[in-house]
Structure formats: structure tokens, C-alpha cells
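Trying the structure run again after the queue cleared.
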Amino acid sequence: MRLLLHWILSALALLIVSHFVPGFILTGFVAALIAAVVIGLINATLGLILKVVTFPLTVVTLGIFWFVINALMLELASAVVPGFHISGFRAAFIAAIVLALVNMIIRWLIPKKRSDE
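Done. C-alpha cells:
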């Protein structure tokens, strides 16, 4: 159940980002759901490898380089998912920052799973 909730909230976060970032285009909720899955898979595989390899650069830039990696992962996902388009690296970079902020707010609003359940 939590996985389904996380998937829907990730799609909702993508839709929120599409309203605030010019050049970040989602055609609907179904495209957002598919994009959320694809972004999750890309981040779990290629994104993880890139984050490990570029860790020294991330330390030197105080973590800002992770936004570059996340922007690249968003652009890769937009190349695969129909109904999801990013019109350049600048839009992807801004979207990566806004998406991180939206996800932080969503995680803050959703209560944590209690340990007594």
C-alpha cells in the first residue's frame, strides 16, 4: 500500500513541477505515473552508479552536482516516456531543484510509518 502511495505522490510531484517550470511538459496524470516509474528505475540503476562515481565532484561542489545528475536522469526519462518532454538542460536542472523541494515538502506532510504497526 505504501509503495502505491509513494508512486502516486511521485506522479503528483511531477505534475506540480510541470506547472512551475517552463519547458517541463507532462500531458496528463497517466504520463506522470509512467514517468514516475521510469525516473525511479533510472535513478535506482544508472543514477546510483553516476552518484557513486561522481561523489568526489559532489563533495567539492557541496552537493550541487547531484542536481546535475538528477537533471540528466530527468532528460533521459523524458526521452523514453511518451507525453513527457523537457526542452533543454536548463529546464531539467531547474526541474531537478524544484522536484527535490516538492518531494521534501510532500515527505514532511505525510506522516511516517509508526513502529507499533
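The longest strand covers residues 24-26. Worth checking whether this holds up in the mutant runs.
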